[in-house]
Design a protein that fits this description.
14 strands, Aspartate Aminotransferase, domain 2, 2 domains, Aspartate Aminotransferase, domain 1, three-stranded antiparallel beta sheet, binds pyridoxal-5'-phosphate, alpha/beta
C-alpha cells in the first residue's frame, strides 16, 4: 500500500530497534548484556501500583478519570514547591508520556517550514517529531570537547527565522546537565532572539554529585510566558510502561494541546492517573526516588571509570540521567571480527552480533563518534559488559 509521504520519511527509533534486537537474541538463549534500555531496571514502587489497582477496583474505568483534577493539582503544587514555578491546575495537561507531550507541542506550535533549534547530541525523537509536524530541525552541534553543551552564542547565530528551541537537561544521550548559570545564559539568548522553549525535564530527579537541577522557566521572570515545561513519571518513578507524562505552559498553548488531545487520545489511562497521583502525593515517593538516584549515581561513576580505562575510549562522567556517551572514534578504521569499523553503526553492530553487548550507536543522536550505554542495569551486568567491550576493542 502506498503510505503517506509524512510517514515514509520517518525511520523507526534506533534505540527501540537495538533494544528489540537484543531482546530477540536473549530470548533465543544468547547471553547478551544490554546497555540499550532507556528505562530504570527497578520496578514501580508498590504503593503506586496499589493506588492504581484500588482505582481500577473502584470502577475508575471511564473517560474522565476520577483522579484527573487532583493529579493536575498535585503537579501544579510540585511545580511550585520543587521548581519555583507558578501554574494553576488548568495550566497543566497530563499526556500519554512525555514523548506524547512533545509530539503534541510540535503539532500545536509548528506550521510547515517552521524552524526549531535542536542541540546535538539530541534525543532521537526530536527531529522526527518536528518533521512530522511539517517543521524543520536546525541542528546546533555541541561536541564532546565542549562537554556536549551549546553556548548562548550558538543560539544567537542560529536563531534567525527560527520559532523554537528544544532543551533537554539532564540529557539523553550524553548524561550531561547544564548548570543553573549556563541555563541562565541560554535564557538570555532565548529572550534576545524571541524563541519559544520546550524544556524537556524528564530526567529532573536523576542528578549526581554536586549538580543542581533548576527548571529552565524559573531562571528569569520573563521565561514562563515563552516556555513549556515537559516532564513525566517514566524515569523518576520507574513507570515507563504506565505512559504518563505532562506539560505546563502558557494558557494559549495549553488550550491548543487540549483541543488536539480531545480529537486524539482523549485522556491517558484513567486508573494509571490514580497511581501517578499517589506518586506525587505520598511521602514514600520522594524516599524511593532518592534510593534509586543513589544507586544510579554509583553505577554512573563506576561505568565511566571503567570505560575510560579502555584505550581509545573517552567518557565524560555523567551528571544526570542514566546514560554515558563515550567517544570511541579512535577505533574507526579498524577491522573487528571481519567488519571494517567506519562509524558508530558498525561498532554497535559488531558489539551486538560478535561481543554480545547491546549499545546504541551515536549516529541517530547526531554524534557518530560516540555510542550510548545505559547504566540502568546491575553492577554485575555493567562489569560483564564493559569486560566484553574492552576485549572487543583490545
Ligand atoms: C529526553 C527524553 N524525553 C522524553 C522521553 C519520553 O519519556 P516518556 O516515557 O515519558 O514518554 C524520553 C524517553 O526515553 C527521553 O529520553
Amino acid at each position: 500500500m502506498k503510505l503517506s509521504k509524512r510517514i515514509s520519511s520517518v525511520p523507526p527509533s534506533a534505540t527501540i530497534a537495538i533494544t528489540m534486537r537484543a531482546k530477540e537474541l536473549q530470548n533465543s538463549g544468547m547471553d547478551v548484556v544490554s546497555f540499550g534500555a532507556g528505562e530504570p531496571d527497578f520496578d514501580t514502587p508498590q504503593f503506586i501500583k496499589d493506588a492504581a489497582v484500588a482505582a481500577l477496583q473502584d470502577g475508575d474505568t471511564k473517560y474522565g478519570p476520577k483522579s484527573a483534577a487532583a493529579l493536575r493539582e498535585a503537579i501544579a503544587a510540585k511545580l511550585q514547591t520543587e521548581n519555583n514555578l507558578t501554574y494553576t491546575p488548568n495550566d497543566v495537561v497530563v499526556t500519554v508520556g512525555a514523548k506524547h507531550a512533545i509530539e503534541l507541542l510540535c503539532q500545536v506550535l509548528l506550521d510547515p517550514g517552521d524552524k526549531v533549534l535542536v542541540p546535538a547530541p539530541y534525543w532521537v525523537s526530536y527531529p522526527e517529531m518536528i518533521k512530522l509536524a511539517g517543521g524543520e530541525a536546525v541542528i546546533i552541534p555541541a561536541s564532546g570537547e565542549n562537554g556536549f553543551k551549546i553556548t548562548p552564542e550558538q543560539i544567537r547565530q542560529n536563531a534567525a527565522g527560527a520559532k523554537a528551541i528544544i532543551l533537554n537537561s539532564p540529557s539523553n544521550p550524553t548524561g550531561v546537565t547544564y548548570t543553573p548559570e549556563e541555563l541562565t545564559a541560554l535564557g538570555q539568548a532565548v529572550l534576545e532572539t524571541d524563541l519559544i522553549v520546550i524544556s524537556d525535564e524528564i530526567y529532573e530527579k536523576l542528578i549526581y554529585g554536586d549538580t543542581k537541577f533548576t527548571s529552565f522557566a524559573a531562571l528569569d521572570p520573563r521565561l514562563p510566558e515563552r516556555t513549556i515545561t515537559v516532564n513525566g513519571l517514566s524515569k523518576s518513578f520507574a513507570m515507563t510502561g504506565w505512559r504518563l507524562g505532562w506539560l505546563a505552559g502558557p494558557s494559549d498553548v495549553i488550550g491548543g494541546v487540549k483541543r488536539l488531545m480531545s480529537h486524539q487520545t482523549t485522556n491517558p489511562v484513567s486508573f494509571a492517573q490514580a497511581g501517578a497521583l499517589a506518586a506525587y502525593t505520598d511521602p514514600r515517593g520522594a524516599e524511593i526516588v532518592e534510593q534509586m538516584r543513589q544507586e544510579f549515581e554509583k553505577r554512573g561513576i563506576h561505568i565511566a571509570q571503567r570505560l575510560n580505562a579502555i584505550e581509545g575510549v573517552q567518557c565524560i562522567q555523567p551528571t544526570g540521567a542514566f546514560y554515558v556517551f563515550p567517544d570511541i572514534s579512535a577505533h574507526f578504521g579498524r577491522t573487528l571480527h571481519g567488519v571494517e569499523i567506519t562509524g558508530s553503526m558498525d561498532l554497535a553492530k559488531v558489539a551486538l552480533e560478535s561481543a554480545k553487548i547491546a549499545v546504541v550507536p551515536g549516529a541517530p543522536f547526531g554524534e557518530d563518534k560516540c555510542i550510548r550505554l545505559s547504566f540502568a542495569t546491575s553492577m554485575d551486568q555493567i562489569d560483564k559488559g564493559v569486560d566484553r567491550l574492552a576485549e572487543l576493542l583490545g
